[in-house]
Design a protein that fits this description.
Length: about 210
């Protein structure tokens, strides 16, 4: 499309001078009538031809832009449909994972711990380690061991094991992360589609 823009620049550069000559032709005609030999005869047609060519080139350029934009719109619609399926699947998995008893226990532990004064230890020290999957000797503080071993934690319903309960919590957390990523991907494609329509409002009425 570079050759079109270059030609348009050249034609538009010529139009002002062509207009002056066309004005001279018209002025001579009004002063002398059609019988006198007009030194600028044909200047109006030359001007009209240049204006018409510039208009046609602009339409061709716009046509190329609309073609590319329409193709992009169809691509984005296909991408959004695929991403929506991925979002739906990810959301279903989150709903399934969050229903696990261990996850429900984990989600309710924060309020219980806050009532007992353990809220900071649970949220800041235990949760990051528990969701990381790291072994007990790697990054688990002495305070956070409380939620693995303490009878007080067990009695309060906030004691967790590092086998089945931890596996369920990690699976839920990973599913939640996948759902967030799927939502971000869908939102990104939707934003690109909205921007495309703002830049090319003609696409809104395209079939």
């Amino acid at each position: 499309m570079t050759h079109l823009t270059e030609r348009l620049t050249e034609v538009e550069r010529q139009i002002p001078d062509a207009q002056k000559l066309a004005d001279a032709e018209a002025s001579w005609l009004l002063a002398n009538g059609a019988s006198g030999g007009n030194p600028w005869s044909g200047a109006s047609k030359r001007r009209d031809d240049l204006v018409s060519e510039a208009r046609d080139i602009r339409h061709r350029i716009k046509g190329h832009e609309l073609t590319a934009a329409h193709d992009e719109l169809r691509r984005l619609d296909t991408e959004l449909a695929r991403l929506q399926l991925e979002r739906d699947a990810a959301d279903r998995e989150v709903r399934e994972r969050v229903a696990h008893p261990a996850v429900q226990k984990y989600l309710g532990a924060g309020s219980i711990c806050r009532r007992h004064g353990w809220g900071h230890t649970f949220a800041s020290l235990f949760m990051p380690w528990y969701e990381s999957g790291r072994p007990r000797y790697s990054g688990l503080s002495e305070q956070a061991v409380f939620f693995l071993d303490s009878p007080d934690a067990k009695n309060a319903g906030v004691q967790f094991n590092v086998t089945t309960e931890r596996e369920a919590v990690i699976a839920w957390n990973e599913a939640r992360n996948r759902a967030n990523l799927a939502m971000m991907a869908w939102n990104g494609a939707a934003d690109r589609r909205q921007r495309l329509l703002r830049e090319n409002p003609e696409l809104k009425s395209a079939s």
